[in-house]
Specification:
Blueprint (H helix, E strand, L loop, with lengths): L2 E5 L6 E5 L4 E5 L2 H7 L4 E6 L3 E6 L4 E5 L6 E5 L5 E2 L1 E4 L2 E5 L13 E3 L23
Parallel strand pairs: 3-11
Antiparallel strand pairs: 1-2, 2-5, 3-4, 4-10, 6-7, 7-8, 9-10
Length: about 130
């Protein structure tokens, strides 16, 4: 059984996850594009792992898009995505919220028919290890 820790950008919210991380999806749907402001969301799922808030639970809020199962929990202070439980049996963890190394690799891309127009040939553009001068 594995144990992972994570936090939001401002550090007010910290959490621990104990258990197996079972799948890792990169979702390109338009809902995920909107709530991340990016090309896709990178979420890890588990039906068995347990989430425990260590600090800042009062700084967490959630939003569910009406008429859908699309849900996002985030820090009210900095806006960082945080884990949530879509249902009683499914933990969803934004991969970028984890502070520990994970062994699970992305399982699949989802909703690729909704990919952003500009999300093509990204491996062909310039890449920098830090902010270019």
């Amino acid at each position: 059984m594995s144990k992972h820790t994570g936090s939001c950008l401002c550090g007010k919210v910290t959490f621990e996850i104990e258990g197996d991380l079972e799948s890792f999806y990169l979702c390109h749907c338009q809902h995920c594009q909107k709530d991340t402001g990016s090309a896709f969301a990178a979420n890890i799922f588990s039906q068995s792992a347990k989430l425990r808030w260590l600090t800042g639970e009062d700084c967490i809020t959630s939003f569910t898009l009406e008429g859908t199962r699309h849900n996002k929990s985030f820090c009210k202070v900095c806006g960082s995505a945080l884990p949530n439980t879509l249902t009683q049996n499914l933990l969803v963890v934004p991969a970028g919220s984890l502070d520990t190394t994970i062994s699970v690799e992305p399982t699949a891309h989802l909703f690729t028919s909704s990919k952003a127009d500009w999300e093509k040939d990204l491996d062909k553009i310039a890449a920098f290890k830090s902010l270019p001068s």
